């Protein structure tokens, strides 16, 4: 019996290129260009077909939005990467502040 819980996994490569393109409202060629540029690298099925995860679809959608705003694909990938780094840094700062408050008590 198949394990359908894997479909809840954001990183499970459940979508074919055609399905991904349809969900995102993009051409298959756009998804291929992301793979060629190594900014979204889908897994491959045993037959060599691209398979995308939900996380990769979200990334492709972000890149498409930036691309539509006039950025080159490489610039869009850099912007998305910097946004991810900023979010991670903000989360780390929040966790460090919470730890500091826990150890010293909240500041007045």
From TrEMBL:
<dbReference type="Pfam" id="PF13411">
    <property type="entry name" value="MerR_1"/>
</dbReference>
<feature type="domain" description="HTH merR-type">
    <location>
        <begin position="14"/>
        <end position="82"/>
    </location>
</feature>
<dbReference type="InterPro" id="IPR009061">
    <property type="entry name" value="DNA-bd_dom_put_sf"/>
</dbReference>
<keyword id="KW-0175">Coiled coil</keyword>
<dbReference type="GO" id="GO:0003677">
    <property type="term" value="F:DNA binding"/>
</dbReference>
<keyword id="KW-0238">DNA-binding</keyword>
<feature type="coiled-coil region">
    <location>
        <begin position="72"/>
        <end position="99"/>
    </location>
</feature>
<dbReference type="InterPro" id="IPR000551">
    <property type="entry name" value="MerR-type_HTH_dom"/>
</dbReference>
<dbReference type="InterPro" id="IPR047057">
    <property type="entry name" value="MerR_fam"/>
</dbReference>
<protein>
    <submittedName>
        <fullName>DNA-binding transcriptional MerR regulator</fullName>
    </submittedName>
</protein>
């Amino acid at each position: 019996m198949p394990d359908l819980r894997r479909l809840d996994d954001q990183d499970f490569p459940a979508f074919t290129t055609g399905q991904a393109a349809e969900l995102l409202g993009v051409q298959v060629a756009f998804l291929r260009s992301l793979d060629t540029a190594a900014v979204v690298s889908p897994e491959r099925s045993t037959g060599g077909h691209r398979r995308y995860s939900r996380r990769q679809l979200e990334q492709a959608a972000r890149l498409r939005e930036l691309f539509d705003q006039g950025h080159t694909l490489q610039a869009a990938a850099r912007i998305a990467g910097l946004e991810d780094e900023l979010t991670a840094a903000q989360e780390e700062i929040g966790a460090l502040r919470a730890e500091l408050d826990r150890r010293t008590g909240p500041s007045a």
